[in-house]
């Protein structure tokens, strides 16, 4: 059975790798900052990591759609 061609997302492969790297680094930095900093500024890292994750999921969703013919 032949599969329909898939659409490309709005991120290039390089941008996608950088988004994953940024998400990973922010996700690792937040617990470290929470332990070392006396204030709650580490919450900003979590919010930005969630925003990056949303972009990655939106790009993934576009990539899974069949391409328009």
Quick recap of the structure?
With 69 residues, this protein is mainly α.
Plain-language structure description:
The chain is mostly helical. The protein has one domain. The chain has two helices and no strands. The longest helix has 24 residues, at 13-36. It is rod-shaped. The two termini are 18 Å apart. Keywords: Membrane, Transmembrane, Transmembrane helix. The chain crosses the membrane at residues 44-62.
Shape by Cα distribution = rod-shaped
- Report the sheet with the most strands, covering strand number, pairing sense and barrel closure: none
The whole-number mean of residue pLDDT values reads 88
Helicity range:
55-70%
How many helical stretches? 2
Task: Report the uncertain regions.
Answer: none
Rg calc: 17 Å
**Number of strand elements:** 0
How many domain modules?
A: 1
- Provide the succession of SSEs: HH
Q: In what range is the share of β-strand residues?
A: under 5%
Q: How widely separated are the two ends?
A: 18 Å
Category from helices, strands and their pairing: mainly alpha
Keywords: Membrane, Transmembrane, Transmembrane helix
Transmembrane segments: 44-62
């Amino acid at each position: 059975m032949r599969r329909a061609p898939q659409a490309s997302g709005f991120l290039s492969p390089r941008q996608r790798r950088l988004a994953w790297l940024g998400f990973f680094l922010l996700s690792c930095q937040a617990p470290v900052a929470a332990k070392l900093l006396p204030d709650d500024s580490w919450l900003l890292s979590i919010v930005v990591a969630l925003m990056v994750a949303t972009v990655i999921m939106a790009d993934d969703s576009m990539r899974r759609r069949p391409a328009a013919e």
